[in-house]
Amino acid sequence: MGDTTARATVLAMHEYDTVVRPRTSLVRSTALSILFSVVPVGVAMTWMSVTPRAWAVLVVVVLVLALAVSTAAVRLRAAFVGVEGGVVTVRGVLSRERSFARAHLAELVIATTHGLSVDRTRRELVALDQGGTPLFRVRGDVWGEDGLDRVVAALELPTSEMTKPMSMREFVRRWPGSRAWYEHPRGWAALAGVAGLVVLGLQLACVTGLLPR
Prior knowledge:
Strand order of the largest sheet: 1-2-3-4-5
Oligomer: single chain
Number of strands: 9
Strand content: 15-25%
């Protein structure tokens, strides 16, 4: 996704001493995905001779897709990690805003993880409490390598870095509470359920005659 530099600035209203936002290229690529996913379908609908029912189904699909991607883009613009005095606040791209007292943070761990391909790695920051429980996580591929380092510098906590790459399965095994809701199987199940309800609604509309032939 291009550069790996996050925007880390001091806000004009001095709400935070340091604030890190998602990588600029991540926001830009999300906006472009809206264009490239919705426009071609719209053009195809305009030039193809389809039945009213097919039109209705395509319109619903396009609207759902546009809403999902647009919501992600808005969340990307609003996401941040802010550090001020004794408090660190994290508003994730797809998670709610949470604040933590710096006194409750005991250690920072930086791990290098990989997915299916061991050649594609990323650094991840995990903040732990006194009992070793993960409080929050900062992914280098979302916030940028520079953003991750700035969070470490702003918190001024004991930090250890594990340079040997580990799989995400190993990462989750070490820090089971670090996964976001959408990384859990139940998160994917919920998304599949929503998609199933949309399809079921369209089927019912066709059967009951709400959609014209």
